[in-house]
Structures are given as C-alpha cells and as structure tokens.
Amino acid sequence: PPGAAQEPTPAPAAEAPGWRPVAAGQEYGSGDARITHLRLCDAAGYSPGVWRGGEEAVLEMRIAPRREVAFPIAGLTLKDRLGQPVFGANTGARLHGERLEAGREALLRLGFRLPELASGRYVASVAFASGSPAQHVQHHWADDALELTVANPHHNGALVAAPALWASLGAADG
Prior knowledge:
By secondary structure, the protein is an all-beta fold. The chain is built from no helices and 13 strands. The strands form four sheets. The chain has a five-stranded antiparallel β-sheet, with no helix packed on it. Strands 1-3-4-9 form a four-stranded antiparallel β-sheet, with no helix packed on it. The chain starts with 19 loop residues before the first strand and ends in a 13-residue tail after the last strand.
C-alpha cells in the first residue's frame, strides 16, 4: 500500500562497505547464537559516514546460531556521549513464528526511522534473543558495538527533537 514501509534490497556480503565484525569484549548471553557482523545503512543499502537524523535506517545483523532458535528478537539501544540511553528499536513480535537453523548463518534486518537527534557521536549496543518481548532468552548482547555520527542542521537545543506535524497563524480577534 502507498506510504507503507518497504523492505530494502538484499544485503551484500559481510565484506562489503559498512559491515563490521562484532569483536569479543563487553558482551553476554547464552551463546546459543551470536551476532558476527553488523551494519547500519539507509533503505538503499548505503552506509553513510554521517547521518542527519529523521531518515529511514536499517540495522543489519549476521547471526550464527549454534542451535535452532525460534521466535527471534533483535534490536539496538543508542546511547549519547554520557552513556545514557537515547532510544531503542527492536523487532518485537514481527518475526514471531520464524526460526533460525543451527549452523546456518542468517541475515536479520530491522528498519526504523532514526529520531531527530542532536549533532554528535553516539554508540549502540545490539542484542539478539528469542521468545517474546516480555519473556525472552538473551543469546547475545554486545555493548557499544556500533558507532554513529549525526550532523543535524535543524538542531533545536534538545537531545531528541519531535518534528512538528503542522503549525498555523491567524488573527486572534475573534
């Protein structure tokens, strides 16, 4: 339908620009599945060096399951320079009923609108789990696995701006 979000074209190989391996470090989880590579790109598959805020973004994760994983959930939490969570996005129940086969790498993609953020550098923690948003098993959580730079020309002095939907001006004389 018109105006509905469309899934972008298939992702290139993990060696393509923008993909980065998820290094061992500040991570935890069951280990039943691991995020091996990830990238943040636009709807066309391009990974911009600098984001403006407000555009459509796609988080892509390559997942290596060690066992079958049912009802996958994936997402990210973006943090500011002080480490405070600014926003999060996840698949929720959108992949309910899907399964990842043990030993077969999967590509998980999540499209969302990047908020109107203040200019600056941000880091994202990424996660992969199974179950439901309310009750799940965390298989892999990687802190500060992704960096993002925003240069927003419409800065309004706040960390996150809510774009105005409309405005009006008229005579007040009754």
